[in-house]
Amino acid sequence: MGASTKPGYDIANKSREIIKELIDDQTKDLTYEERDIVERVVHSTADPEYAKLVKISPDFVDTALKCFDDGKDILTDINMVKSGITRYEGDVMCYIRDERAVKLAKKEEITRSAAAMRVAAEDGFSGVVAIGNAPTALFEVMDLVEEGIMDAKAVVGVPVGFVGAADSKEALSLTEIPHVITTGPKGGTPIAVAVINSLLNIRK
Q1: Per-residue confidence at 82, pLDDT binned at 50, 70, 90?
Q2: Calpha distance 164→135 (Å, rounded)
Q3: For residues 136 and 39, what is the distance between their CA atoms, to the nearest angstrom?
Q4: What confidence category does residue 6 fall into, taking pLDDT thresholds of 50, 70 and 90?
């Protein structure tokens, strides 16, 4: 390891040590994998409150890891989330700029994010969905799964915002889909990316 890279690793390791101390009480009942997810989320946001906000369904970790081991696709709501997932050998997909999604959104008068989920389902998507920004995309995924149109095996549902975000995440928590959510309005791209990258790092 070069001299220029070692300080970065030292800082990251020190940050993780500080985070472990700050959130130990909130994570002591979690599995190793679940703790790693929460720690990575807190590390990416510098916000220990996420230790209380992140909720992980009991079947999420095993389901998502199996998907990655099987080479299943990852579907994101926006390209920023896609860009943050850099260590996966399978396909990381985003349809937000797909011309079919653009046309469908106009035709059906829905958001392009929701339309993108429909197009992904039409293309036969099967795997893990990571949504960090668009509540409409999360609602659409749940509807598509319920209708048997989309094979979303696990969902990281952490959209951010004051309109629809909290409601969409609460709705996801009441489904049988293996999931990770953040309660309330907080969430966003860094959270979605942190959850996925945590699991991909665990697979090493």
Answers
A1: very high
A2: 6
A3: 28
A4: low
**Amino acid 5: pLDDT:** 54
What is the torsion angle, in degrees rounded to the nearest 10, for the CA atoms of residue 12, residue 15, residue 21 and residue 22?
A: -130
Specify whether the CB–CB gap between 85 and 128 falls below 8 A: no
* pTM, 2 dp: 0.91
Domain locations in the chain?
54-202
Q: Which fold, 54-202?
A: Rossmann fold (3.40.50)
Paired tokens of 104: 């469908």
Could you give the 3-state DSSP secondary structure of residue 201?
Answer: helix
Structure tokens that stand for 177 in this block: 């889909």
User: Greatest CA separation found in the chain?
Assistant: 56
Pairing label, strands 54-56, 126-131: unpaired
What amino acid positions are annotated as catalytic residues?
A: 43
The better pLDDT of the pair 8, 190 is held by 190
180 three-class SS: strand
DSSP-assigned beta bridge partners for residue 74: 92, 128
**Torsion, Cα of 63, 65, 67, 70 (10° steps):** -130
pLDDT attached to residue 20:
73
